[in-house]
Amino acid sequence: MKSRFARIAVIGLMLTLGAVPLQLLTTSTAFAQASGTTAMTNADVVKLAKLGFSSEVIKEKIDGASAVNFKLEVDDLVNLKSSGVSQDVISEMLKRADGGAASAAAGSGTPPTGAMAGNPFDVTMVTTNGGNVHLRGISGTISTTNAFVTVLEHYNFPGVAATVRTHDARPSFIVNSTDQPKGRIYIVSVEVDKGDQDRSLKLGNSRFWGGMKNVGAPDKDNQIAYDAVAVGNGNQWKLTPTTDLKPGEYGLYMGELFDFGVDE
Predict the structure, then answer these.
(1) Which one of 60, 178, 212, 255 has the fewest CB atoms closer than 10 angstroms to its CB?
(2) By C-alpha distance, which of 150, 241, 161 is closest to 199?
(3) Would you list the DSSP string of the chain?
(4) What is the annotated signal peptide range for this record (predicted)?
(5) What distance in Å separates the CA atoms of residue 194 and residue 183, rounded to the nearest whole number?
(6) CB distance 238 to 174 below 8 Å
């Protein structure tokens, strides 16, 4: 009790002398502690989310930051999501890393920061008949199922069929990436659940003992092997499955699913 009164007395004295400004107890101080004077990072965003700030407030902070240094590879996106960062905040991070928004950064001539030059979530499907289709990413929800000693994790996406369809059994995909996309961008097959009216992708699993395995990466049974060839200015890659795709539902997975279907 005595120590408590002593702390109160010291704080009161510091406030009186002006050593601790009153705004120490305001949200602006939390922002300052989170971002400091350096570039805003993933850790700053996670800190604000865990402090309970709304998505709108965090997005305003992202837009207003003088610089950002976000890491937005697939594993980074999974970590952000599992740390409680909302989907719309992650989307704002992607937009800012791509050079969008932020009045402080606009018109500065500074190249976009982030894991990839150009929007990583920009996928074009190229078919053998010369048709190009822009794929749009969709978000899903995580579900887990206990299976004996293993916890199975699935990413579930709405609808039983993709809007984009092709008869091409081996389409190619143009993606933006400054690095080799294998191990970060996946071509996957998804399972249709007509009962739940969705499509699911099995992810890495965890055991009740022995830790977690391949968390955030699709299960190997759902991965489609592909060849990756650098094209354009070196910041783009052309991904082509090594074998024909059977009729069914597919997508490019990198935190979101860029879905398409193959018809007979």
Answers:
(1) 212
(2) 161
(3) -HHHHHHHHHHHHHHHHTSS-GGGGSHHHHHHHHHTTS-B-HHHHHHHHHTT--HHHHHHHHHH-S-B----SHHHHHHHHHTT--HHHHHHHHHHHTT-S-TTTTTS-PPPPSSSSS-SS-EEEE-TTS-EEEE-EE--EEEEEEETTEEEEEEEEESSS-S-EE--SS-EEEEE-SS--TTTSEEEE-EEETTTTEEEEEEEEEESSS-EEEEEEEPGGGEE-EEEEEETTTTEEEEEESSPPPSEEEEEESSSEEEEEE--
(4) 1-32
(5) 30
(6) yes
Q: What value does the mean pLDDT take over residues 26-45?
A: 62
Mean pLDDT over 169-178 rounds to 91
**What's the CA gap between 115 and 19, in Å, rounded?**
41
Identify the pLDDT of residue 167.
94
Task: Report pLDDT digits (tens) over 62-92.
Answer: 888 888 889 888 788 888 988 889 888 888 8
Written as one letter, the residue type at 53 is F
The amino acid that residue 255 corresponds to is G
- Amino acid (one-letter) located at 204: G
Query: Distance between CA atoms of 41 and 67, rounded to whole angstroms?
Result: 9
Which range has the worst mean pLDDT, 14-28, 202-216, 247-261? 14-28
Amino acid, single-letter form, for residue 167: H
For 70, 88, 89, 102, 244, the CA distances from 65, given in Å and listed in that order, are 12, 17, 14, 7, 46
Contacts of 224 (CB under 8 A, 6+ apart): 186, 187, 188, 189, 241, 245, 250
Q: Which of 14-23, 122-131, 172-181 has the lowest mean pLDDT?
A: 14-23
Return the bridge partners of 202, or none. Answer: 154
Q: Show the tokens assigned to 259.
A: 């879905």
